[in-house]
Amino acid sequence: MLAMTGRYSLASIMIIVAMLMDGLDGRVARALNAQSDFGKELDSLSDVISFGVAPALIMYIISFQNIQPGLAWTVTAIFPMCGALRLARFNVQSGIPGYFIGLPIPAAGGVVATLALFHNNIRAPYFIVTMLLLSYLMVSSVKYPNFKKVGIPKKAIAYAPVVIIVAIIVAVFFPEQISKLVFIPLVLYAGYGLKQNFDRLLRRNKHDDEEADKVFRSK
Length: 219
Known about the structure:
There is one protein chain. This protein is mainly α. The chain is about 75% helix and about 5% strand. The protein is built from eight helices and two strands, in the order H-H-H-E-H-H-E-H-H-H. A two-stranded antiparallel ribbon has the order 1-2. Helix 1 runs antiparallel to helix 7, helix 4 crosses helix 8 and helix 7 packs across helix 8. The longest helix is centred in the C-terminal third of the chain and has 44 residues. This is CDP-diacylglycerol--serine O-phosphatidyltransferase. Keywords: Lipid biosynthesis, Lipid metabolism, Membrane, Phospholipid biosynthesis, Phospholipid metabolism, Transferase, Transmembrane, Transmembrane helix. Its EC number is 2.7.8.8. Its main location: membrane.
């Protein structure tokens, strides 16, 4: 709704606030001993909206209005669809301790929402490529570090509401600056997966070359 009224920076800030809340909800539930399957499913549904649909809509409103409609609609739809697939896989597959399989949807949504603020400097085709790349990373098998497993003392949980309130106040007063600042670590985190993919491809090619060399020598 903020994006529809032209308040793009504040719209992006709301995605960042949602990321902050998403990082704390599980810890709060565990601290209060209130975990449940209901909460797990509701969390996934919330993630699809907050980090799939909302960022894609922000990007569409800001940057995709003047490109071919079919292409704009397709790219806008693919992003939350891949995010939903990523979440569904997360709910049914056993993960690797300390890692996520595929780019987490909050990080992908954060990149899209903050990247959209650079619309005056970056043309729409680059946004399209980035969104498709992020969509692929979400459903890929690349391992991403899981910072949610970092322990936080239970006493610190009590201060979480204060931290959130202060962060929101600062973000509301400096929405564009904060959004663009948060963009940097988010894009580095997403880029980590690209590097992993590239390294894995190099290792595979090296292994294939070694196998081919062994076969050649045996002949």
